[in-house]
Structures are given as structure tokens and as C-alpha cells.
Design brief:
Blueprint lengths: L4 H18 L2 H6 L20 H5 L4 H20 L5 H21 L4 H21 L3 H24 L6 H15 L3 H24 L11 H21 L3
Helix pairs in contact: 1-4, 1-5, 4-5, 4-10, 5-6, 6-7, 6-8, 7-8, 8-9, 8-10, 9-10
């Protein structure tokens, strides 16, 4: 894929913006209320870490800054100067925070996800107004409803196989991906199960996670990023 000067400029600008926003990750995590202990959910052999402890982890700020910068930089390089970047870049540090939390606690806090619906929805609508294309907002809405409904049905049928936090997160990702197009949405959604299935097997084999309750959120977020960057190309190669 050829990259023009405008895309390089957007990529560098989003790289810088992501680095600055990523530095806020420890504060984002530290501001989340601590989960209530439950004997059923927190067996002694798998204690959950406190959010304050995670936020105080060594090097979290610069590691998150690098991760967020890479993600937003690639988004900018892929989309160029596009108003639809607004929702993606603003959500990026929250997504990194959610990935860190879920990886260490197998929880996706509602306190972070619920406001993301409002902010992401507002930015998707703003992008539709700025580009004067209402289909951007319509696709975002369809992505939200369809993705949330799909994950909800899976959770309802087999709640042990999917956490409700994953269901909540799916709606935000569906909205952000849907605004870009249905190819990005499909790749981002189905890619999560491919990455999660393969990644879960590998991590379980390496005994890095418990195969019965490994974090799915990071795989959802990674697949969503792939959907943003390469959704149309991947969908086309698969004949979608």
C-alpha cells in the first residue's frame, strides 16, 4: 500500500499525540475503584491485583506511552488526515489501560467502559458532521448494536466462555470500527476470536494464563486495531 506525504504527517502527529496520552495510563488505572473481593471469583491460588498496585507498576507510564504511540501512529499512517481518527486516538489510552487491567485481573471495569460509549459516540457523530457524511454515524450505530448483540448472545448461551465485561467492551469497539466501514468491523470482531483462540492455547501451553479464565479483552483490542489498519484488505482477501 502506497503511503503519501499526508499520511506520513498524520502518522507522526498521531504518534506524538499517542505518546502524550499514553502517559496518562497509570492515572486512568489508578482512578478506577477497587473491585469487591469475592471468594467465588477470587480463589486463593489466583489473587487479583489491586488497581492502585497495577498503576504503581514500574515503568507503566513509559511502556503505555510507547504502546499507545505505536497504535495511534499506525492509525494515522493508515488513515491519513481523517476526522474518524478522533474516536480512535482518544480511546487508545483507555484501550491500553483496559488491556493492562484485564491481563492482570481478568476484569474489564465498567467505570472505564461506560464513559467510553459516550465519548466514542460523540466523536463518531462529530466526525460524521465534519466530513458531511451521515453514513459514518449510521455505520457507527450499526456497529455498536450488532457487535454488542452478537457478544451478548454468546455470553447468554455460554456465560463461562465469555465475561460480561467483554460484552460491554464489544459495543465501544463496534462503534469505533463501524464508522470506518463494515469490512473493518467484520475483521475486528471475528479476528478477536481467532487471535483469542490461538493466543489462549499458546499462553495456556506456556502456563502464562489459566485456560479456564484467560483475559480476552487484549485480544479484542488487538483485533480491533488490525481491523482499523487492514480491515478492507483482509476482508477482500477472504472474499467478504
Amino acid at each position: 500500500m502506497a503511503v503519501d506525504a499526508g499520511q506520513w504527517q498524520a502518522g507522526l502527529a498521531m504518534l506524538a499525540a499517542g505518546a502524550a496520552l499514553g502517559m496518562l495510563t497509570p492515572r486512568i488505572i489508578g482512578a478506577v475503584p477497587e473491585p469487591v473481593a469475592s471468594p467465588e471469583q477470587e480463589p486463593p491460588e489466583h489473587p487479583k491485583r489491586l488497581y492502585a498496585e497495577i498503576a504503581a507498576g514500574p515503568g507503566l507510564a513509559w511502556k503505555s506511552a510507547v504502546a499507545t504511540a505505536v497504535v495511534t501512529g499506525v492509525f494515522g499512517l493508515s488513515l491519513g488526515w481523517d476526522w474518524r481518527l478522533l474516536a480512535l486516538v482518544v480511546f487508545a489510552p483507555v484501550g491500553v489501560a483496559l488491556a493492562v487491567i484485564d491481563w492482570q485481573t481478568t476484569l474489564l471495569p465498567t467505570r472505564l467502559i461506560a464513559p467510553s460509549y459516550v465519548v466514542t459516540g460523540a466523536l463518531v457523530v462529530a466526525a460524521a458532521v465534519l466530513v458531511q457524511d451521515r453514513d459514518v454515524a449510521i455505520r457507527g450505530g450499526v456497529g455498536w448494536v450488532a457487535t454488542f448483540a452478537f457478544f451478548f448472545v454468546l455470553w447468554f448461551i455460554y456465560p463461562r466462555g465469555l465475561g460480561y465485561g467483554d460484552v460491554r467492551l464489544s459495543g465501544v469497539l463496534g462503534m469505533a470500527l463501524g464508522q470506518l466501514g463494515y469490512a473493518s468491523l467484520l475483521v475486528g470482531v471475528y479476528g478477536a476470536f481467532i487471535l483469542g483462540g490461538f493466543g489462549g492455547l499458546v499462553l495456556s501451553a506456556l502456563r502464562l494464563v489459566d485456560r479456564r479464565r484467560f483475559p480476552f479483552g487484549p485480544f479484542m483490542l488487538l483485533a480491533a486495531a488490525i481491523g482499523v489498519v487492514a480491515g478492507p484488505e483482509v476482508a477482500s482477501s477472504l472474499g467478504w
